[in-house]
Design goal:
Elements: E1 4-10, H1 13-27, E2 32-38, H2 49-54, E3 62-63, H3 71-89, E4 93-97, H4 101-112, E5 116-120, H5 132-143, E6 146-149, H6 152-160, E7 167-169, H7 173-184, E8 197-198, H8 204-207, H9 210-221, E9 227-230, H10 233-241, E10 252-255
Parallel strand pairs: 1-2, 1-4, 2-3, 4-5, 5-6, 6-7, 8-9, 9-10
Helix pairs in contact: 1-7, 3-4, 4-5
């Protein structure tokens, strides 16, 4: 039987995490060949390489090093380079995750090159078109051939937009990732002796306005269990810029 080649496009921290279960699953099936393309949307070691190392993933087959750009420039440059790789590798399908510029770039290139598009985390909606991520996820869903939705609500969202074909409710891939992380001991926090919540805040909508960021942190601070908060560089910079006093959030263990 001829092997099917899947080209996965990743570029941001959440996508590296979600890619681990897919890589493990592909390695368990001899009929699948997985090619990993890293756009470089997140590029420093704490945002990129550390995840591949800790999760035991292979190094990306292609590394673009796109880096930070405006949305249009970043997406356009990704598309140029992804197209070259699609022509070179000739995959049977292109797999994308979530809702980043890397997601949209991979999906658009695959669609225009007449390759199947697989979208993991399909159907999620904030119904807020001022968020760039909302535009990315909606457009990606409408060019996808296989849409793996994490929840029944996500399936309903797709149905309401007229997307019925190729939709599968699969559950949340982050649950698979948590099981892998527990097995590897990654989730252990030595400063915690009991149960705790794990949180991350990184979307510009939540981090770039001082009152909204303060409200999010205050809500976490009121939870009944301690919160371990590995802080995204964007969030750290804004926390300092907005002069939000960490001492006011004593239920949150901030890791930066």
């Amino acid at each position: 039987m001829q092997r099917k080649k899947i080209m996965a496009v990743v570029g941001a921290r959440p996508q590296f995490i979600k890619h681990a279960p897919i890589e493990i699953a592909c390695h368990q099936h001899s009929s699948l060949e997985l090619i990993t393309v890293h756009t470089g949307q997140h590029y420093d070691e704490n945002m990129s390489k550390v995840f591949f190392d800790q999760l035991g993933m292979k190094a990306p087959d292609y590394m673009m090093n796109i880096g930070s750009q405006s949305h249009a420039k970043q997406t356009g440059r990704m598309m140029e380079k992804i197209e070259d790789i699609v022509f070179s590798e000739n995959p049977d399908a292109v797999l994308v995750y979530g809702d980043t510029n890397s997601t949209l770039a991979g999906a658009l290139v695959a669609s225009k090159c007449h390759k199947k598009v697989i979208h993991i985390e399909a159907g999620l909606r904030s119904f807020n078109r001022s968020m760039p991520e909302e535009i990315n996820r909606v457009l990606t869903d409408h060019v996808s051939d296989l849409l793996f939705a994490p929840t029944e609500q996500a399936v309903k969202n797709l149905r309401q937009e007229g997307i019925n074909k190729g939709v599968y409710k699969t559950g949340d891939i982050m649950y698979d990732m948590i099981l892998i992380a527990e097995e590897k001991g990654i989730l252990k926090e030595p400063r915690m002796t009991g149960s705790y919540y794990l949180a991350t805040i990184h979307r510009p909508y939540n981090t770039d306005e001082p009152r909204r960021l303060e409200k999010v942190l205050s809500a976490l601070n009121r939870l009944e269990l301690p919160v371990v908060f590995p802080m995204h560089p964007r969030t750290k910079n804004n926390l300092d810029r907005f002069q939000l006093d960490r001492a006011n959030f004593d239920n949150i263990l901030i890791q930066d």
